[in-house]
Specification:
By secondary structure, the protein is an alpha+beta fold. It is built from 8 helices and 22 strands. β10 and β11 form a beta hairpin. α1 crosses α8 and α2 packs across α8. Bound molecules: flavin-adenine dinucleotide. Flavin-adenine dinucleotide (FAD) binds next to α1 and β3. This is NAD(P)/FAD-dependent oxidoreductase. It comes from Georgenia alba.
């Protein structure tokens, strides 16, 4: 079978890019090894839609995403669970990146604000007005009112459904085993069951931790990536949850999201272990304890909150500089890769997918993606 574009992976990136391509009349096939939202774009709880403390390179993408998120549910005619609750990044101690206390905070807020993420530096009193439950050690915070949360599973499924409705073929349970290359062009893919699909214009690898291995089948340039399984906990509070906004922390591995009046999601960079043979991740007891201890140190009222679920099964790709690679992978001229989102790819996905589709349809790299090009790993002469 021939298609104009073949996308590998039906997480939020593959589904959203297919939707944009299909609604503009392009013929697109999406091949997914498991099920839609079966990877990092699925699972319990919600994901943060956050510009606060995001790397400067990604802030123009977040600026665009701020415009797209509020209207996505209407465009997809489905609930995305998006809520603009605002985010607060707390700090307690002078630390690299925040040395100088409130003065450092103001400088960070100024920079973020200028790059499209409205941000205010808050002192202790102002933080407590927003989050009365924080511990006395909290000395200030960065407040970004346009940040929020969304239901990642619902959003990804809605995007895949919209892509199908617009004419894309999204084929589940079809792992891609290798790519086919002729000269510097990638001309198709071969599935694990031996089926060949030809691509007239481009093959797009939006398959997260599977991207580097598939690129290697056509001698694509090496990608400085590794696989990780971030830990996600949900806890139940005895009284009303003390957490009112999306909360992050400068010097603790902690992120908190309210899921309901008595339910919270606790994450922040803790990880499980990946079993290569089983192809699955699992939690580690000490990491669960560590993550809960950080939450309780910042919100003492969480002392008697009880753990409801703990999981570390959703593999995510991390990159050497904590930024994704979104580029045509050398030496090919038509293998587009978007991977390495390093635990923060969900929020910017609507923006990146829109730009990826534009790139594929026009042949011109959109300016906001320039900083994520592969050439940043090219040796200095
Ligand atoms: C616990 C956790 C918390 C997170 N929190 C946040 C957050 O708060 N904010 C935020 O912005 N981001 C967050 N992220 C990161 C974000 O969820 C990811 O960056 C994003 O979902 C990646 O989407 P994707 O489409 O690239 O990958 P995925 O959703 O993993 O999709 C890739 C798909 O490719 C398929 N695939 C792989 N190999 C093949 C193959 N060979 N053939 C066919 N299909 C293949 C997989 O089955 C998978 O379905 C979090 C991630 C995790 C795991």
């Amino acid at each position: 079978m021939r298609h104009r574009f073949i996308i590998v992976g039906a997480g939020i990136y593959g589904s959203a890019t297919a939707w944009h391509l299909a609604r503009q009349g392009a013929d697109v096939l999406v091949l997914e090894a498991g099920e839609v939202a079966g990877g990092a774009s699925g699972g319990p709880g919600k994901r943060g839609v956050r510009g606060n403390r995001r790397a400067a390179t990604e802030l123009p993408l977040m600026r665009l995403a701020y415009d797209l998120w509020p209207r996505l549910a209407e465009e997809l005619d489905a609930d995305t669970g998006y809520e603009r609750v605002g985010s607060l990044n707390l700090f307690e101690e002078d630390q690299p990146g925040m040395r100088g206390g409130l003065a450092a905070l103001r400088a960070l807020a100024w920079r973020q604000d200028r790059l499209g993420v409205p941000t205010e530096a808050l002192d202790e009193r102002q933080v407590r007005e927003l989050e009365p439950g924080v511990a006395p050690a909290v000395r200030g915070g960065l407040w970004s009112p346009l940040d929020g949360v969304a239901d990642h599973t619902a959003t990804t499924r809605a995007l895949a459904a919209a892509a199908r409705q617009a004419g894309a073929v999204v084929q589940e349970h079809t792992p891609v085993a290798s790519l086919i290359r002729s000269g510097n062009r990638v001309t198709g893919v071969v599935t694990r069951s031996g089926e060949t699909h030809e691509a007239d214009e481009a093959v797009v690898l939006l398959n997260n931790s599977g991207a580097a291995a598939l690129a290697a089948t056509v001698d694509g340039a090496p990608l400085p990536f590794w696989r990780m399984v971030p830990q996600a906990l949900t806890v139940r509070t005895t009284g009303t949850s003390p957490v009112r906004h999306l909360v992050g922390h400068h010097n603790r591995a902690l992120s908190l999201k309210t899921l309901g009046p008595h339910e919270l999601m606790v994450t922040g960079g803790w990880r499980g272990v990946w079993d290569e043979r089983a192809g699955a991740g699992s939690t580690v007891e000490s990491a669960i304890r560590g993550n809960l201890a950080e939450a309780r140190a910042v919100y003492p009222d969480l002392a008697d909150a009880t753990l409801q679920t703990a999981e570390a099964s959703r593999a995510e790709t991390y990159s050497a500089d904590d930024l994704p690679v979104i580029d045509v992978l050398p030496p090919t001229t038509n293998l587009l890769v978007g991977s390495g989102f390093s635990g923060h790819g969900f929020a910017i996905a609507p923006a990146v997918a829109l730009l990826l589709a534009r790139w594929l349809l026009t042949g011109d790299r959109p300016e906001p993606l320039t900083g994520l090009a592969y050439r940043r790993f090219t040796p200095v002469p």
